[in-house]
From TrEMBL:
Belongs to the BTG family. One of its GO terms (cellular component) is nucleus. This is BTG1 protein. GO terms for biological process: negative regulation of cell population proliferation. It comes from Donacobius atricapilla. Residues 96-115 form the Anti-proliferative protein domain.
Amino acid sequence: AGSGAGEDMRTEISTAAAFVTRLLRAAGGVGEEQLRCFRECLQEAMHEHYKHHWFPLVPSKGSGYRCIRINHKMDPLVGKAAGMIGLSHERLFQLLPSELTLWVDPFEVSYRIGEDGSICVLHESPQPGGKVAKQLESRTSCKEEWRIGRSSPSKSYNMMTVSS
C-alpha cells in the first residue's frame, strides 16, 4: 500500500517546517507572506535533501543526515529558505535560538533547544509493523520551552558524532 518514500515523509517535513516557521513568527519582524514562502521553501529543500535518505523500515538510519542543526553555524536548508525571502544568516541568528537541533525521522519529529535542553516531540505516529518507537525520558516535561527563549550558556562543546 506504500507509495514512494517522498510521499511518506510529507507529515514529518511539514511538521518540522511549521515548527521553524513558528519560531520565526514568535521572534517577530517577519511578515506572514514571507513566513508562508519560507515554510514552503524549507519544505521543498527538505524534501529534496531527504529524498534518498528516508528509511521507514529503519527510522534511525540517516538520522544525522536529516538532522537540522543551528549551532553558531546556520543549517544550510534553513539558510536557503531564508535566502528566498531575503533574510540574511545574521538576521536568522537573531531570530532563531542559537542552539537548535531538529530531528526529522520517519514517524517522529523532535527537537532540542540548547545543548542540554530536554528533547521534545513535535510529531509521533505509530510505526507500521508494531515496532516500538524509541522512548525519551523527558517527553512529557516539555511545554513549548522555546517561548521562554532559554539558551544554554556558551562554552565550547564537543561535536556530537552520529553513527548511521
